[in-house]
Every structure is written in structure tokens, then in C-alpha cells.
Amino acid sequence: MALALSACAAAPREPITPVDGSHTNHAPASACDARTLSWTVGLVADDALIERARIEAGATTVRVLRPGMMITNEVNPTRLNLRIDNARKVLAYSCG
Fold first, then answer.
1. For residue 28, what pLDDT is reported?
2. What number of other Cβ atoms are within 10 A of residue 43's Cβ?
3. Between 95 and which of 30, 32, 73, 81 could a Cys-Cys bridge form, CB atoms 3.0 to 4.6 Å apart?
4. Dist CA 39 CA 9 (whole Å)
5. pLDDT for 9-47, tens place per residue?
């Protein structure tokens, strides 16, 4: 249970301002980008892995999805989702 609660905790992040002063109308600066998280698959989702993955993805929060767990359908572009098995090994990852 402690893992479930700690997985939702996130350190505050400051927005990134481009050095050239340009601005884009794309996703917010804290939007999640999980393209580099393939290293997580097959590893145990302990607190250290969850936090490292969150930071690497630029996410503000993490949702750990366990087998049979009921989840909501709302999409949050700043959240990282880690799907794990009964042994807490990461099966998949996504943002939203």
C-alpha cells in the first residue's frame, strides 16, 4: 500500500523557458514523454525505479497500474502510467 501512495507523490517542477524566448502552443512544459523508458520493462517497480522513470519522462505524477485494478478514463498529459504484474515487474509504460 505504501508503494501505491508514494507513487502518486511528485516533486514540484518548474516550467522550462526556452533560451531564445520562443514559445510553442504544444503540450505543457511538464507533459510526460515516455519514449525513453524501455529500460523499465521487466524490472521491479520499486520506489527508486518509479521516481527515476517519472523524472526521465518529465512527468509530474505516476500511476502504478496493477492486475485487476480499476482505473479511471481521464487523460492527464503530465502523468506517467506504469503497468505492472503481480511480481511488481513493469510490463508497459505510457503517458496520459
1. 53
2. 13
3. 32
4. 22
5. 444 344 333 343 333 444 455 699 999 999 999 999 999
What's the pLDDT at 6?
Answer: 43
Residue written as cell 502518486?
8
Q: Residue with C-alpha cell 517519472?
A: 54
What DSSP element (H or E) covers 90? strand 90-95
* Contact between 54 and 10 (Cβ < 8 Å): yes
Query: What's the CA gap between 70 and 51, in Å, rounded?
Result: 23
Q: What are phi and psi of 63, to 5 degrees?
A: -120, 120
Contact in structure between 90 and 40 (CB atoms under 8 Å): yes
